[in-house]
């Protein structure tokens, strides 16, 4: 694997960790403030998606053409795939944490491929 691609993947994983902390932080803060957990999750997901766009477009796939609509569509698809894979994994793995971990690994890889090949295409400049 080329050095540039390896560095991009490392930046993607680091940004993903920061994005996860941000999204969960929003959720946790809203719950702490007394908001219903489902509303807090929805708000956290929307704000987290916007934050993720910034970190991925500027920190991981810098120099790519703007792709806000493709990014939102990819995240909607990612959410649906996540649910479907979790259901499938739960059929084979009784432990919900193991099923969630297996789902996360697969979805992280799939998300990178979608972001790299469909969302953040090279700029035409």
UniProtKB/TrEMBL annotation:
Its membrane topology: Multi-pass membrane protein
Entry-linked InterPro entries: GtrA_CellWall_Glycosyl (IPR051401), GtrA_DPMS_TM (IPR007267)
Family: Belongs to the GtrA family.
Entry keyword Hydrolase: no
Protein name: GtrA-like protein
Chain segments annotated as transmembrane: 12-32, 38-57, 69-90, 96-115
UniProt main location, coarse: membrane
Sorted UniProt keywords: Membrane, Transmembrane, Transmembrane helix
Domain (GtrA/DPMS transmembrane) ranges: 11-120
Pfam families noted in UniProt: GtrA_DPMS_TM
Highest taxon listed in the record's lineage: Bacteria
GO cellular component: plasma membrane
Signal is among the record's keywords: no
GO biological process, one term: polysaccharide biosynthetic process
Subcellular compartments: Membrane
């Amino acid at each position: 694997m080329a050095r540039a691609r390896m560095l991009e993947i490392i930046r993607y994983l680091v940004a993903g960790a920061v994005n996860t902390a941000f999204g969960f932080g929003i959720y946790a803060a809203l719950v702490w403030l007394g908001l219903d957990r489902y509303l807090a999750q929805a708000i956290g997901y929307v704000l987290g998606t916007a934050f993720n766009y910034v970190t991925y477009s500027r920190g991981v796939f810098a120099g790519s053409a703007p792709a806000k609509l493709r990014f939102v569509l990819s995240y909607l698809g990612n959410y649906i795939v996540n649910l479907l894979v979790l259901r499938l994994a739960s059929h084979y793995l009784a432990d919900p944490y193991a099923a969630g971990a297996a789902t996360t690994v697969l979805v992280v890889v799939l998300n990178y491929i979608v972001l790299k090949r469909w969302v953040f295409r090279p700029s035409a400049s």
